Amino acid sequence: MREIGFDSEKYLTEQSQYILERVNQYDKLYLEFGGKLVDDKHAKRVLPGFQEDAKVKLLQKLKDQAEILICLYAGDIERNKIRGDYGITYDMDILRLIDELRGYGLLVNSVVITRYNNQPATEVFINKLERRNIKVYKHEAIENYPLNVEKIVSNEGFGKNEYIKTEKPIVIVTAPGPGSGKLATCLNQLYHESKKGHAAGYSKFETFPVWNVPLKHPLNIAYEAATVDLGDVNMIDSFHLDYYGEMAVNYNRDIETFPVIKRIIEKITNQESIYKSPTDMGVNRIEAGIINDEVIQEAARQEIIRRYFQTECDFKKGLVNEEAVNRISLIMEEVGLKPEDRKVVAPAHAYAEKFESLTKDPAAVIALELPSKEIITGRATPLMEAPASVILNAVKALAKIDDDIHLLSPITLETIQKLKKNEMHMKDHSLDVSEVLIALAISAVTNPTAQRAYEKLVELEDAQAHSTVILSKNNEQVLRKLGIDITSTAAYPSEQLYHQ
């Protein structure tokens, strides 16, 4: 059983109350939501006990008073920017997010395309949304934003962008990733609300960094590790310290832009801002849910190691630059961590060494830690890939099935292989994890032993695993859907350039 360090219910109660207190100061509050609105797996990993859909549950508490705007930067559509956790483009993630939010009974007002400039792929996406009866607004880029305050707060700035009609007192502004234009959309709305004589306000809801835990707490350092590609650095909020004499943690981008954002808000409202620091703008109450700091610290340290492996792999794939690799290495040194401090790393490589002498390519091996702390390994064979092997070995161990008992008929597996090789003309016809899971599900209908193993898949939730090679996108996604936290060493399984 995983140790719990966070009380989600206590957090949700305090967080919703605090947001409502902030709303009471205005006719309407534009609340910028940073991070993932749904499936916040980073928060779940570093705050054991945090529910990955906690933010959506928070919105459900407020749903009678809230509606949602979703922002998307046109440039991210044009370059097919990918969400690493889902393996889908940002525009497709908008469709997924709308479906998810509607499934929770939440009102999605519209999609806002930011920095719009008649981009061709963006036009196609707008057509797709509008033909499914989703309202779309287009906001153009404003020259020298956010520095040219006089132009920004004028008819030539926010004034030329559309006003988004909303009805609820809380407007949640979210996006699939950073740089999507959430803040600009909020400020644009404040400008138009002010023109209409409405008392509207702005606040920001960021889960990390946590402003009221120490700067060098592993929880905050884990946030830096998660954003090495963005170059975010946690800092003491000097504005907060100067005004209140109180330490508060924020990150460099918010601290650097605070003076100009404060000026923009003051020019829009024609009155002094109530905010004396970027921390004031936030409504984060994460610290209220922490019930075991030692558990949180260890979970955060493990997340830093996971981010180290992810950054190394992303560099190998060409997704991040060398500066990101250097930064994550420095973070590892700062916290005093080594890759081997992740328990499944050494067993995976130790098992791989037994086979690497037989081939010029790295041996593909996965080590997985069961809830009992037992380490299970699986390796790639001509029949199936390493993720498939380790899953079968893991459910056998959980169901206490002897290793020499076949869960799946060899004839069935060979038939699937022949289909891939002869009819589908696939060069690599080893079975991947999704194919083996489907075979296991089918076998469970008639084979009681397979049924016992199949029922143990649910116990792999939160299991830790490490692969000695970079996994295919499909294998990685399936393992994550099973709830397995998988990392990989930055090595390809072969010299083939088109492999996977």
UniProtKB/TrEMBL annotation:
<keyword id="KW-0645">Protease</keyword>
<dbReference type="Pfam" id="PF20921">
    <property type="entry name" value="DUF1846_C"/>
</dbReference>
<feature type="domain" description="DUF1846">
    <location>
        <begin position="4"/>
        <end position="335"/>
    </location>
</feature>
<dbReference type="InterPro" id="IPR048496">
    <property type="entry name" value="DUF1846_N"/>
</dbReference>
<dbReference type="Pfam" id="PF08903">
    <property type="entry name" value="DUF1846"/>
</dbReference>
<protein>
    <submittedName>
        <fullName>ATP-dependent Zn protease</fullName>
    </submittedName>
</protein>
<dbReference type="InterPro" id="IPR014999">
    <property type="entry name" value="DUF1846"/>
</dbReference>
<feature type="domain" description="DUF1846">
    <location>
        <begin position="340"/>
        <end position="498"/>
    </location>
</feature>
<keyword id="KW-0378">Hydrolase</keyword>
<dbReference type="GO" id="GO:0006508">
    <property type="term" value="P:proteolysis"/>
</dbReference>
<dbReference type="InterPro" id="IPR048441">
    <property type="entry name" value="DUF1846_C"/>
</dbReference>
<dbReference type="GO" id="GO:0008233">
    <property type="term" value="F:peptidase activity"/>
</dbReference>
